[in-house]
Structures are given as structure tokens and as C-alpha cells.
């Protein structure tokens, strides 16, 4: 069914009709010793998880609900690099397969026409200064009609079908993502973070533009400069000073 063209990624692929969350299965399998590159795919999730304890709508056949177990030989502080890497993989697959112009909104939302089509959730198990495993969750809205999104996210959520006007083959997309992921991961091992950073910034949403940024404490205007190897967003404030942000929201839409 999967017809994967990979060497190691997805060689162990667990497919389920329905689960609470592929992330939870990822943790269970990883604790039982599942190898690097193990993939979990579900047709439907009952309790799909997003970042910041948000829920993620994951209805049957409407999208990619997938988690990947990785065992990188990295220090925990380098884990964000893997998330940024994953975002570049999704952007490139969408650009090539979908003939669309995806953008990556920091830290790791995939947008098409300013609307979110995909998100990444990275969860890590680390011991002292070494990563034991990472479960990287990829959610991609593929075949939803726009009207399917709940009111509160409709203005900022979309699907591939919505933005390209036609339905997509989910299995084929998964094949392409895993192949590109494997390749990009190998480039990362050989050449480090630099090529990932360049690709990320190429697709980066509103890089070199002035945007409104908000944190828990304040809201201000700044120019987005790029990303750092530790996952931080680098910005330039109106007084010319540079700053690294680890947690912040970039406002949607104009300014
Ligand atoms: C986000 O943008 O907030 C991240 C969304 C991540 C959703 C995916 S779907 C597959 C995996 N399983 C989950 O429960 N969540 C991730």
C-alpha cells in the first residue's frame, strides 16, 4: 500500500484506522525500543494534539495525521533544529507536488495564501545531555472543504484542496514527505544546520518584513530577520537592536 522509496524512514510503519493521537502511540513505541525512522499514521484521531495544549481536528480521510520517531545523536538544545528541518521538508513537498507557494510561519506552521494548512508538534524524551528520542507529529489539512473548519479558525485555516481546487491522494503525499524527510535528514547529518536554515528562510513567512509581534508581556513592531540554530527567531527592533525570541506570536495578516 505504501510503496515507500526510502532506505530507513518508514521501514517500520504502523497504520491505524482510529487512534486518540499518533503522538501517544509514538511515545509508547519509542519506550518499547522502536527504531529511528519508525512512522505512525492514522486515518482519524479522536484527540489530535496541537502545540500549546490546543486540539487538532483530525477527521477520517481529511488529512495527514502522522508521527515519526527519531533518535538523533544530538543534545536536547539542538532538538528545535529537527522541527525546523521538518518544516522545510513540508514546504518543499508542497511547492513541488502542489505547485503552490507555501510559507513557513515561525516556529513551524505551514501557510498557503496566509492560511495554515499544516502544523508540527515535536515532543522529546531526553536524559541529561542526550536525546533518547523525539516524536515529531505532522498534521496536514488535505481534503477538507473550507466550510468544514470551525468558526474560530476558519479565517486562518485552510486545506490543500481549498487552496489548489482539487482533492489530493493522501498516501502519495505521505510517500513524498517521507522520502524528502529522509534525504533532508541525511543532508543535515552531513552538512549541519546551514542548508536547513537557508531553505527555511527562503520559505519564511514575512522574513525581511515589519510585523507585529506579541508575547505574554507586550506587543510591538519589528522586522523578522531569520532563524538561529537553537530554533530562535531573530528580529530587528525599530531602534535597530537585534533580539532573539524563543516564544512569541507573529500576528496574522498585515502589519
Ligand atoms: C500545531 O500546529 O499546533 C501542531 C499540530 C500537530 C498535529 C499532528 S497530527 C499527528 C500528530 N498527532 C497529534 O496528536 N498531533 C500531531
From TrEMBL:
Keywords (A to Z) from UniProt: ATP-binding, Biotin, DNA-binding, Ligase, Nucleotide-binding, Repressor, Transcription, Transcription regulation
BPL/LPL catalytic domain residues: 1-189
Binding residues annotated for biotin, in chain numbering: 45, 116
One GO MF term: biotin--[biotin carboxyl-carrier protein] ligase activity
EC number, UniProt record: 6.3.4.15
Catalytic activity entry: biotin + L-lysyl-[protein] + ATP = N(6)-biotinyl-L-lysyl-[protein] + AMP + diphosphate + H(+)
Function: Acts both as a biotin--[acetyl-CoA-carboxylase] ligase and a repressor.
Family of the protein in this entry: Belongs to the biotin--protein ligase family.
Protein name in the entry: Bifunctional ligase/repressor BirA
Organism field: Thalassobacillus hwangdonensis
Amino acid at each position: 500500500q505504501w510503496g515507500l522509496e526510502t532506505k530507513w524512514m518508514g521501514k517500520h510503519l504502523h497504520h491505524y484506522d482510529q487512534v486518540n493521537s499518533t503522538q501517544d502511540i509514538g511515545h509508547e513505541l519509542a519506550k518499547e525500543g522502536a527504531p529511528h525512522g519508525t512512522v505512525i499514521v492514522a486515518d482519524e484521531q479522536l484527540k489530535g494534539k496541537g502545540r500549546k495544549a490546543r486540539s487538532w481536528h483530525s477527521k477520517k480521510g481529511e488529512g495527514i495525521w502522522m508521527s515519526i520517531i527519531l533518535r538523533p545523536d544530538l543534545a536536547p538544545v539542538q532538538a528545535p533544529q529537527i522541527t525546523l528541518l521538518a518544516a522545510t521538508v513540508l514546504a518543499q513537498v508542497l511547492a513541488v507536488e502542489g505547485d503552490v507557494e507555501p510559507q513557513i510561519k515561525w516556529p513551524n506552521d505551514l501557510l498557503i495564501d496566509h492560511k495554515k494548512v499544516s502544523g508540527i508538534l515535536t515532543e522529546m524524551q531526553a536524559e541529561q545531555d542526550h536525546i533518547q528520542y523525539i516524536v515529531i507529529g505532522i498534521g496536514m489539512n488535505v481534503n477538507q472543504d473550507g466550510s468544514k473548519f470551525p468558526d474560530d479558525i476558519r479565517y486562518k485555516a485552510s486545506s490543500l484542496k481549498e487552496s489548489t481546487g482539487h482533492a489530493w491522494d493522501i498516501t502519495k503525499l505521505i510517500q513524498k514527505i517521507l522520502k524528502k524527510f529522509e534525504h533532508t535528514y541525511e543532508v543535515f547529518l552531513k552538512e549541519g544546520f546551514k542548508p536547513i536554515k537557508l531553505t527555511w528562510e527562503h520559505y519564511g513567512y514575512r522574513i525581511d518584513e515589519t510585523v507585529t509581534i506579541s508575547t505574554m508581556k507586550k506587543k510591538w513592531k519589528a522586522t523578522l530577520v531569520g532563524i538561529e540554530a537553537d530554533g530562535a527567531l531573530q528580529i530587528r527592533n525599530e531602534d535597530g537592536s537585534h533580539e532573539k525570541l524563543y516564544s512569541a506570536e507573529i500576528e496574522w495578516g498585515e502589519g
